[in-house]
């Protein structure tokens, strides 16, 4: 619920509220107690289904996959066969009501506990084709040295894994479908060719 218990006095007392950049399920399943939602993008990363999911879209015995951010330069050092490498990832910045900052951080730490760590990034937007800095925000990433990082997987193999995997949060394929749909809604003309191709492959198995 936007603007709950959040007034001018609160803003004055908290000039640097906690902001979180969502690039996966946070886009359509926002954190609690956010007071503002802004569309933007970060630079220098790719969004990839390279993080094993043992607690949401898969199980310990049969892990699913969810997205993580990998620095573009690091990703290209791992593979030369990715046809969809870009340097921009679109998502959503949520500003959290300072009254609930500790509660929300604990909630997010639990939600993103499977191999993710928090870093700070610059978030940008576009106005009339001109790029400008929107804000700084925190973001959860699964570094390549974390135990749940699954690395590079050929898309045909990855699509089968996503199609078959199911976890406590539901089918892995639904996570992919939702993510692709919501990214399209973020900004006019925004597309993620990687997500689009993976959605096509999983949909072909799902027909």
Automatic annotation (TrEMBL):
Matches recorded under InterPro entries: ChaC (IPR006840), GGCT-like (IPR013024), GGCT-like_sf (IPR036568)
Parts forming coiled coils: none
Any single GO CC term annotated in Swiss-Prot or TrEMBL for this entry: cytoplasm
Gene3D superfamilies, per database record: Gamma-glutamyl cyclotransferase-like
Source organism phylogeny: Eukaryota, Fungi, Dikarya, Basidiomycota, Pucciniomycotina
Record protein name field: glutathione-specific gamma-glutamylcyclotransferase
BP-aspect Gene Ontology terms: glutathione catabolic process
Gene Ontology molecular-function annotations: glutathione specific gamma-glutamylcyclotransferase activity
Keyword tags: Lyase
Keyword Transferase tagged: no
UniProt superkingdom: Eukaryota
């Amino acid at each position: 619920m936007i603007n709950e218990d959040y007034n001018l006095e609160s803003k004055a007392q908290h000039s640097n509220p906690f902001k979180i950049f969502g690039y996966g399920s946070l886009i359509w399943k926002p954190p609690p107690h956010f007071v503002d939602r802004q569309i933007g993008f970060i630079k220098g990363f790719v969004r990839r289904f390279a993080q094993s999911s043992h607690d949401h879209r898969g199980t310990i015995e049969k892990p699913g996959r969810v997205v993580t951010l990998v620095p573009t330069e690091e990703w290209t050092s791992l593979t030369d066969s990715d046809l969809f490498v870009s340097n921009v990832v679109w998502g959503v910045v949520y500003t959290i009501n300072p009254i609930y900052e500790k509660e929300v951080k604990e909630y997010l730490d639990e939600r993103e506990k499977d191999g993710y760590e928090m870093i700070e990034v610059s978030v940008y937007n576009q106005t009339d084709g001109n790029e400008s800095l929107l804000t700084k925000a925190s973001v959860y990433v699964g570094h390549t040295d974390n135990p749940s990082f699954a690395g590079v997987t050929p898309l045909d193999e990855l699509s089968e894994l996503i199609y078959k995997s199911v976890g406590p949060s539901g089918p892995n394929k639904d996570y992919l479908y939702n993510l692709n749909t919501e990214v399209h809604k973020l900004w006019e003309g925004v597309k993620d060719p990687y997500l689009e191709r993976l959605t096509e492959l999983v949909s072909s198995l799902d027909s």
